[in-house]
Amino acid sequence: MSQNQKTAKKAAKPVKQDTDELLSLEAKYCSWGDTVHYAQKLNIFSRSEGIYLYDREGAEYLDLQMWYSAVNFGYKNKRLNDALKRQLDILPQLACQYLHEEKIRLAAKLAQRIERTFETKGRIHFNVGGAQAIEDSLKLVRSSTGRNLVFAFMGGYHGRTLGASAITSSYRYREKFGHFSDRAMFIPYPYCFRCPYDKKKEFCDFYCVKQFERLFETEYHSVVNKKTNKCELGAFYVESIQGTGGYVIPPYEYFVRLKEILDRYNILMVDDEIQMGFFRTGRFWGIEHFNVEPDIIVFGKALTNGLNPLSGIWAKERLISPEAFPPGSTHSTFSSNSLGTAIGLETMKLIEESDLTIEVPEKGEYFLSRLKALKRKYPEIGDVDGLGLALRMEMCHKDGFTPNKELTDCITDIGLSGKLTAGGKKRGLILDVGGYHKNVFTLAPSLFIQKKEIDLAVDLFEEALKEGIRLTA
Amino acid sequence: MSQNQKTAKKAAKPVKQDTDELLSLEAKYCSWGDTVHYAQKLNIFSRSEGIYLYDREGAEYLDLQMWYSAVNFGYKNKRLNDALKRQLDILPQLACQYLHEEKIRLAAKLAQRIERTFETKGRIHFNVGGAQAIEDSLKLVRSSTGRNLVFAFMGGYHGRTLGASAITSSYRYREKFGHFSDRAMFIPYPYCFRCPYDKKKEFCDFYCVKQFERLFETEYHSVVNKKTNKCELGAFYVESIQGTGGYVIPPYEYFVRLKEILDRYNILMVDDEIQMGFFRTGRFWGIEHFNVEPDIIVFGKALTNGLNPLSGIWAKERLISPEAFPPGSTHSTFSSNSLGTAIGLETMKLIEESDLTIEVPEKGEYFLSRLKALKRKYPEIGDVDGLGLALRMEMCHKDGFTPNKELTDCITDIGLSGKLTAGGKKRGLILDVGGYHKNVFTLAPSLFIQKKEIDLAVDLFEEALKEGIRLTA
Amino acid sequence: MSQNQKTAKKAAKPVKQDTDELLSLEAKYCSWGDTVHYAQKLNIFSRSEGIYLYDREGAEYLDLQMWYSAVNFGYKNKRLNDALKRQLDILPQLACQYLHEEKIRLAAKLAQRIERTFETKGRIHFNVGGAQAIEDSLKLVRSSTGRNLVFAFMGGYHGRTLGASAITSSYRYREKFGHFSDRAMFIPYPYCFRCPYDKKKEFCDFYCVKQFERLFETEYHSVVNKKTNKCELGAFYVESIQGTGGYVIPPYEYFVRLKEILDRYNILMVDDEIQMGFFRTGRFWGIEHFNVEPDIIVFGKALTNGLNPLSGIWAKERLISPEAFPPGSTHSTFSSNSLGTAIGLETMKLIEESDLTIEVPEKGEYFLSRLKALKRKYPEIGDVDGLGLALRMEMCHKDGFTPNKELTDCITDIGLSGKLTAGGKKRGLILDVGGYHKNVFTLAPSLFIQKKEIDLAVDLFEEALKEGIRLTA
Amino acid sequence: MSQNQKTAKKAAKPVKQDTDELLSLEAKYCSWGDTVHYAQKLNIFSRSEGIYLYDREGAEYLDLQMWYSAVNFGYKNKRLNDALKRQLDILPQLACQYLHEEKIRLAAKLAQRIERTFETKGRIHFNVGGAQAIEDSLKLVRSSTGRNLVFAFMGGYHGRTLGASAITSSYRYREKFGHFSDRAMFIPYPYCFRCPYDKKKEFCDFYCVKQFERLFETEYHSVVNKKTNKCELGAFYVESIQGTGGYVIPPYEYFVRLKEILDRYNILMVDDEIQMGFFRTGRFWGIEHFNVEPDIIVFGKALTNGLNPLSGIWAKERLISPEAFPPGSTHSTFSSNSLGTAIGLETMKLIEESDLTIEVPEKGEYFLSRLKALKRKYPEIGDVDGLGLALRMEMCHKDGFTPNKELTDCITDIGLSGKLTAGGKKRGLILDVGGYHKNVFTLAPSLFIQKKEIDLAVDLFEEALKEGIRLTA
Known about the structure:
Four copies of one chain form a homotetramer.
Chain A: H1 2-12, H2 15-29, E1 45-49, E2 52-55, E3 60-63, H3 66-69, H4 78-90, H5 101-118, E4 122-128, H6 130-145, E5 151-153, H7 162-165, E6 185-187, H8 207-214, E7 224-225, E8 230-231, E9 235-239, H9 254-264, E10 268-272, E11 296-299, E12 310-316, H10 317-320, H11 338-353, H12 356-377, E13 381-387, E14 390-395, H13 405-417, E15 427-430, E16 433-434, E17 440-443, H14 451-472
Parallel strand pairs in A: 3-15, 5-6, 5-9, 9-10, 10-11
Antiparallel strand pairs in A: 1-2, 2-3, 4-12, 7-8, 11-12, 13-14, 14-17, 16-17
C-alpha cells in the first residue's frame, strides 16, 4: 500500500536526527505537566499492532499494559478500526443534541446487558474521558442524595479533573491546587498483602468492614446522625479491582458486606470500571465477580479500544430517569459522538461474538501460573495475583515484603531500552508500574494475547528481572 | 463501494419502522440528561457531508451551526478524514505517557503560531473535551496564583464538569448539584444591544469597565486588600466572543481596558477559544481582533474538525514551565491521543495552506450584509452582528427589542421539519439558538461555505422566518 | 468608699513608670492581632463614667463612639450596673441547659416588642458576641433555605468568625485565611454621597435596586433558574445603616424595594442591628425607619450596655419554631447566661420607662444641625448626615469630595492626645473612624448625652479639626 | 440588705403560678434550638451558691457538673464576684481597641505561666465564648500553614459556630446546615474502654497511634505528598481529656507519640482546654499530664468562673508574633472586655494563692476511690475513671459493657426531681451526661468541694442509681 510505502520511505530518513529535533521541540513547546516526564529517557513510538509497539527505529516492544487497558482488543484491531473508517465515510460528525442510530443502539446494548446481569433497569449517559464520566456520576450522586461528600478508597484513582481529584486518594494530585471543598473521606482498601490493619486474611473475619461499620455506631464517629439515620456522605466510590493502586483484588465477600452497610444508610455504591470493564478481569465488569450490584457504573477506555475517548455511566432508573435527571442536567460537545459510538457498538458486537468469558479466565490462569512459578524462584517477587488478565507482581527486597521501587524502576527501564533477547531477537517490554509504593507491575495484556506470547512475555520479564536484580544488588 | 451498497440496502428497509424502534430504545435506555430532549420532536440523522446533514429518510438539512463550530472545515472533510484513516493504519493507539511525533509537532505548531502572534513563549497541554481543558486551566490558575476563585462573565459558558459549571454563569447548571465552593464572581459582559447598565454604546465611555475597576477602589468592595494590593480572585475567564451567550461581540477596545486592570493586580486572563478558535471569526483566535494578549488560551472543538475530542491549553512559559507545572500535574488517558493529534496536525497544515484570513472575513461580510438586509425588512430581527463567520440574529417582538423566544423556537422547529422549499427542493435548516433570552440564532456555517450556499441559507431562513411570524402572530 | 481610696492610692504611685511596665508587658505577651495596634501610640484607660473615659493620669476624654454603640446608655449607668450586681448576689451562674427567669422574660419582652412593631410572631435565640449571633442566623438561613450562599453589601460588616468574615465585604479580613467556600455575593450599597453607579440621588430612580433586580432577569445573570424560579442564594444580609461602612443611611424607600424583589424569590432578609439596635437611630431597631419587615434580626452590643457580650437573633416563627429549629440546633456555654440576661432585662425596662423615641431624634437633630453648620464652614467636611444619634462626618480634601484619610487620622490623634482646651480645661476626644475610605467619623454618643455636652463635643471637634487642617496642610 | 428582702418577698408570691406563666412565655418566645429542650421536664433555677443550685421553690441541688466546668471555683465565689463588682465601679466598659491594665496583666500572667511550664514564649489573644476562640485558632492555623483542613478526634467537641462545627465530630451538629467545606478529617480517639480497634490497652502497643502514622506512609493514604513531605492538613485539634465525649482519659504516652508524628510533617497541635483548663484535672492545663507541648492552647469557661464569657488562645511566638498575626487579623467587640479580664486576673491570683496542685488531685483520688467502690457494687457501672476532679462513670447494662442510655437518663431525671433524701433532707443532684453513647456521667464538681460534700454527692448518686436500676429493670 502506498501509505506503508510512505512510512517506509520516512523510516529511510536519518531517523536519529529527526528524533533529536522532535525531542528538542518537545522540550520547548510541550507542557511537561502530564506523565511523559516521569521517565528520565523519553521514548517515541511510531507504530502499534497487535500486542506490539514499535519505535522510530523499528524496534519491537511487547506491551503488557495496553494503554492501561484502553486497548483490550489489541492494537490496530481490524474489525474496530474498520468500524471507525465506516462511520467516517457516512456520519463522521453530528452535534450531540441530535440523535444517531449508533448512540441509541450502544446505549441499549449496554443497558440491556447490565439488566440481564443485575436484573435492574437503568440508563446510559455518555461523555468523553473517564474523568468526565466520573463528574457526571458525581452530579447524579449530588442531585439524588443532596450531598456533596462521598467515601472513596485509599489507593483509589478516579481521574484528574478537580472533582475527580477530590475523590482520588493521592494528595500529590491536589497539593498544588488549593483547597478541595469536596475532598472525599478515604477509607482503607482491603489490600490484604499489606493489610492496613496488620491482619492476616485467614483470621481477620473482615475486620476492615467492621472498622467501616463502626463509623455508623454513634454520631460521634462523625458521619451519621443516629436520630435521623442519615449519613453525611452520599456515595462510596469503588473500583472492583484497584487499578492505579496496583491491581489489588479484594476478598470475594468484601463488597457484599460493604454494600449491606451502605444500603442501611442509603449510600450509593458507584463502581468505577474505567480500567476493569470490558472483560479485563474475565467478566464484562470486574464487579461481577463479587456478587454485588452497584447503583452507578462508570466506564470508558476499552469501550472503543482506545480509538475514541468515549466514556459513560450507567445508573439505576430511579437515579437517572427523565424526572430525576432531566434534559440539560449535563452536557458535553463530544459526549455521544458518532465515531465513538460506532466503534463502541462494534466492540459490543465483537464481545457478543467472542468467547471472552471462557478465554480470558483461561489465559489469565495460565499467565498467573507462570508468574507464580517466577515468584517461587525469585524472593524479590513479594506477591503475584490476578483476576482474568488483570495481573499484579509486587517487587520487594529479598525479604519478599519490603517494597523495592528501585528494582521496579530498573526493570521498567530495562524493558524500555528494547535490548532484551529472550525471544530470539532484540525486543523491548512495556510494563506499567502502580501500587501504593510504586513497586507493582500491573499487567494488562491484550485480551487476544496467545499462549506463546504469554510465554514470550514471561521470558522477557524474567530476563529483565534478573538483570534488574543484578544492577540494583 | 461495498459499504455504500450496504448503506443503500439498509436504507431500503422500512425506515419508519426502524426509526420507531430506535426512538423506543432511546426512550428506555438513554439518559435524557443531555440536550437531546430540549427538543419536543427528536431528529435522527444518519449522514453528514459538506454543509449538509441527512436524516434517515434522506432529507437534506443545510447546517448553520456545524456542531457549534466543532466542524469548521465542513462535514466529512476529505483531507482531515484521510489523516485520521492514515493514523489508524499506523499508530491508532499509544499510551499518552509515551511520545509520538504528531503530538510534538502539533504542540510546536500551535505554540509557534501563538508566539508569532503575541510575541510570547508558551507551551501546549492537551486533554480531551473542552471542559477538561478548562479544568487544566483552573489547575494552572490555582497553582500559579494560590487562589481558588476567579472572575467570569455573566453569559459566559465554559463547560459542565463541576469545576467548569462553577465558572459558567447559568445557575440552572448548578441548581441540582449542591454547593459550589468555587463559584466564580460573575461580571456583566459588554452586551451593548442590551447594555447591563442601560447605556448607549456611543456615549458610555466604557462605563462597564469602570464599574469593574471600581471593585478595586477599596477593600470594602470585596475583592482587594489595598494594603497588600492583592486580589481575592486569581483569574478572569473570558470568551473573546460569547458563544452560548449569543455570539455577542464586545466593543473593540474592551479587552485592552479590562486587561490593564487585571495586570495591575496580577489577575490572569484566561481566554476560552473553544468555540471561536480556528478561524471561526476570521482569525486564528477570536481574541486576536481585540489587541490583547491572554495569559492562558483554552481550545478544543474545531482542532480536529469534530473527529476527535482533542482539546488543550496554551499558557505563558512562566505559568507552565516544567518548574511551574511539573510532571504529573495533570493527566488523562486520552489527553494527547495519537488519532486526535494526527488530525489536529493536519488541521494546522490545512489552515497554513488556506486563505482563511482573507476568505472568512469576506464570506462573513457577505453573509452579514444579507442578514442586515433581512433586518431592514423584518422588525422582528432586533439585532444582527458578526465577526467572520460567527454571526448573530436576535429575534424580538415587533418593537425590535423585546426578546421573542416563541418565534425563535418556532423558526427552529420549521427548519428541523425539513419542509422548506426555498432552494427549489425540500430541505431543512439547522439553526442553533443561544443568548441570554434564548432568542438569538448563533450562526456558525462551515468556513468553506460558498457564496451561493450562503444565499440558499438566507433564503431558507427567510422562508422559515416568514412562516414563523405567521404562526406566532 | 474603700475601693475608691485604693484607686486613689494606686493613682498616687508613679503612674508613668507603671504605664511603661504595662506597655512593655503588652508588647511581649499580648497578641497584636486585634485592633489595638492600628494606633501608633497606645492609650491605656482606667476609668469610664457617663460620656467620659479617663486615662491613668486622670485625663478626661469625651467619648463620641461609646464602644461602637455597645454603651448606648452611658458608661457606668447605675441602674444597669446595679442589675448586674443584683444578679451577682443571687444567680451569678447557671448552665444554659437549665432555665432562669430573666432569660425567659427578656426573650418575651424582645419578641413581644417586635410582634407589636412588625405584627409578626417570632422567637429569640441568645448567644454571646455579635459574630456568634450572626453564625446562628447563618444556621437558620441554611436550614430553612437549603442554601449556603447569601447576598451581602459591599461596605457591610458582620463580624470576624470565619463564617461572618465570609459575608463581610472587606477582603483584608479574609486574605490570610485561605479559601472561603461560602463567600457572599456582595452587592453595591446605596451610598449616595459616593454612588457606586455615579448617579445623582435626585434623578437615579433607584438605579441600584434595578441593577440588583436585573440579576433575576435570566439564568445567565448567574443567580436564578427561571424554570424553577429558585435563587442560588438563600438570604440578603443588611445593616439598616452601615456601621463600619461609615454610618451610611440609605434612601428611605430603598429597603422596601429591595425586599419586594427578595420576596419574589424566597430570599430571606437578615437585618444586622448589632450596631444600630436599641435606639441608636431613635427607634428600637434601625430598620424601623424604612417601612420593611426583616425575616431575621441579629442584635448584640447595647442590649447589656456593654456589661456582658449577650447577643441574639429574632426570627419569624416559621423559621425558628421548634419544628424548624429543633433542640440542639445550636448551643454555646454562655448563650443565655444569667448575668447578661438580667442586665438585658433591665435595659428593656429602662427603655420602656424612657422617652428615647422622642429624645434621641431631638438630640440627633440638634447634633446634626451643629455638624451641618461646621460643614458650611469647613470645605474639608464633605458630607454630614445622621439618623438619631448615629451621625457621620466625611472628611475630604478641599474639594469636599476626595477622601482625606490623612486629615481624619490626624484629627483622631489630636483627640486622643488629650490636650484640647475647648471646654475650658484639657480634654481628649474619642472618635471612631469608619467608611470605605477610612475618612468618616462615625459618631455614636451616649443616648443620654446632654445638649451642652453636645456643644462641648462639637467645640472640641472643631478645635481638633482646625489643628488637623493646619497640620496636614 | 434590701435586695435580699425583695427576693424574699418575691419568693413569697405564689411561685407555682408564676412558674407556669414563665413556662408558657418560654414555650412561645424562646427558641427551642438550644439544649434546654433536650429535657422533657424543664427546671427553672433561681439561685446558686457554692456547690448548690436552688430552684424557685427553694429546693437544693448538689451540682456535679458546675456549668460544664465553667464554675470551677464554686457558685457565687465571693472573691471573684467582688472582683467583678470592683471593676464595675471603676471601668465597667471600654472599647477593646484601647488598652486597660487588667487585659495586659492577665495576658502576661497566662503567657508567663505557660512559658514556665513549657519553656516556650508565646502570646495571648482574647475573645468571648469558647467557639470564637476556636475560630481565632483556626485563623492562626490557616495563616501559618496555608491549609484549611485539620485533623480532629472522633468524640471531640470544639463548639458550634460553623467553623467549630466543621471540626466537631458529631454529624448531628452539621446535618441541617448544608455543606461544610472545611470538615475535619476525624481520627479515632484512644478511648480504651471501648477501643475503636477492639484492642486491649495492656497489649495494644499504641496500635491507634500506629494507625495514624500509617496515613503518612504513602501518598495513597490520602494526606501526604511523600515527594514534598507536605501534609494536606495543617493542624490536629485535641482535647487533653475529651469533654463532651465522656471525660475519656488517654493513655499517658499517647500525646507524646502523636506529637512526634505531627512534628515530622509540620502539623500544629491545637489543644482545646476550654473544659479541662484551670485545674479541672489537677493541673493548670489538662495537657500538662501528658508530657507534650502544644503549639496553640484554647481556653475559656473557668477563666472567669462563669461570670463572663471571656475566652482566648495562647500560641507560640512564631505563630502569633506581630509579623505573623498582624494588627486587624481578628477582632470582636467584647474580646478583651474590662469586666472579664478583671475577673480573669483575680482568678489567676486566686489560683496562685491556692493549693490546687495538691488539693485537686487529693480530692479527685478520694472521689474516684468512692466511685470505684460503687463500681464494685453495681455491675451497671461499666467504667469509672478520673484525672483530678474530672471524673467519669459509664452506665451499662448488667454485662458492664453494653451502653445503657435509658438508665443514665433515668438517674439524671431522678437527680433533677429534687427528691433524693440521702443527706438527711430532700435534695436534687445535678448530673451531666456525655459520651459517645450518651451513657457517661461526666462529673465536674467545684474544685473547692469538701470531702464530706463528696460523700454526700456519692450517697445521693447511689440512691439515684438504685432507684434508676429499679425503674429501668
